[in-house]
Amino acid sequence: MNATMKGVGDVAYKAFTAGLGAATIYLAVTFSINVYRGLSWHTSQSKIEKDKSLE
What we know:
mainly alpha; membrane; transmembrane; transmembrane helix
């Protein structure tokens, strides 16, 4: 019985660790996308302001 419980614990630990890894990768990707979108937005806003000041 002890060996079975150890096996269940190992599987649970591996599943938990895999979930944390997947969550970390997801958050890193979405963070990178949001940084890119924010920089793109900021650049376009700067261009609009620059164009307005030239008028």
